[in-house]
């Protein structure tokens, strides 16, 4: 069997049809109807990816994600029925790898799952890379640690990968399209909003004044560059 996917949704019909589609596509699917059940299952047997409904009864998907983030390093794709929930997710600094709105096209979901699994594998490989020092910023891919002026900064996987991509080209401008391809994958071309949101989150953690950034500089109409600050 292929990768193990855990599907967490309180809609029994959706669970059945989606689990069937996942197995048809060669994955091994497990299902849970609540975040509490899902966390118990993850602790027992770690899946390769979690499809997580946001609007769950009891503990909601956002709280479940916080626990998954702090205890396990598993890619998560949010399933959301409402646009408002989606805005909430973007407004919250969370480590979900992706989100997809219901009703979704099965092929689109399968493509997104492939991307998230590929990213998870690539990111565990890239963590073995060389340590980078850019002024007061140190990025250690092997340990997945970022320090700023000697103080450790906690970054979710996607933000870490974005900073790492900028650091590999420190001093040079990297276009939004290049960042999308390197960090999210070619399937995300055209979704530049994703980059803007993650840059904003990074600046909130790295900059003294996020509205007047000194580390991550915007080059209008081109992209972003990481500048060394002593």
Could you characterize what this model shows?
By secondary structure, the chain is of the alpha/beta class. The protein has helices at residues 12-24, 35-44, 61-71, 83-91, 106-126, 157-167, 176-184, 192-206, and strands spanning 4-8, 28-32, 49-53, 76-80, 98-101, 132-134, 137-140, 145-148, 151-153, 174-175, 216-219, 223-226. β8 (145-148) and β9 form a beta hairpin. The mean pLDDT is 84.
Notable traits:
230 residues, alpha/beta, Rossmann fold, Arc Repressor Mutant, subunit A, 2 domains, five-stranded parallel beta sheet, four-stranded antiparallel beta sheet, 12 strands, elongated
Mean pLDDT: 84
Q: How much helix is in the residues?
A: 40-55%
Distance between the termini: 51 Å
Number of domains: 2
| Spatial shape | elongated
The string of secondary-structure elements, in order, is EHEHEHEHEHEEEEHEHHEE
Strand order of the largest sheet: 2-1-3-4-5
Query: How much is the radius of gyration in Å?
Result: 18 Å
Largest sheet: 5 strands, parallel
| Total number of helices | 8
Per DSSP, what share of the residues sits in E-state strands of 2 or more residues? 15-25%
């Amino acid at each position: 069997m292929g990768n193990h996917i855990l599907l967490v949704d309180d809609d029994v019909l959706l669970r059945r049809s989606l689990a069937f589609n996942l197995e048809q596509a060669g994955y091994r699917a497990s299902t849970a109807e609540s975040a509490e059940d899902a966390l118990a299952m993850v602790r027992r047997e770690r899946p390769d990816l979690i499809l997580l409904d946001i609007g769950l009864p009891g503990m909601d998907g956002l709280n479940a994600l916080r626990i998954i983030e702090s205890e396990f390093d598993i890619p998560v794709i949010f399933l959301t029925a409402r646009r408002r929930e989606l805005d909430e997710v973007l407004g919250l600094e969370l480590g979900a790898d992706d989100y997809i709105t219901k009703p979704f096209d099965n092929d689109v979901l399968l493509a997104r799952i492939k991307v998230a699994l590929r990213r998870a594998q690539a990111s565990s490989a890239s963590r073995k890379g060389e340590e980078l020092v850019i002024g007061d910023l140190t990025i250690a891919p092997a340990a997945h640690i970022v320090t700023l002026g000697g103080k450790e900064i906690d970054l979710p996987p996607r933000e870490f990968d974005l900073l790492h991509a900028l650091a590999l080209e420190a001093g040079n401008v990297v276009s939004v399209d290049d960042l999308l391809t390197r960090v999210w994958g070619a399937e995300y071309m055209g979704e530049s909003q994703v980059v803007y949101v993650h840059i904003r989150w990074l600046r909130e953690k790295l900059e003294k004044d996020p509205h007047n950034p000194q580390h991550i500089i915007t080059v209008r109409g081109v992209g972003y560059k990481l500048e060394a600050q002593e």
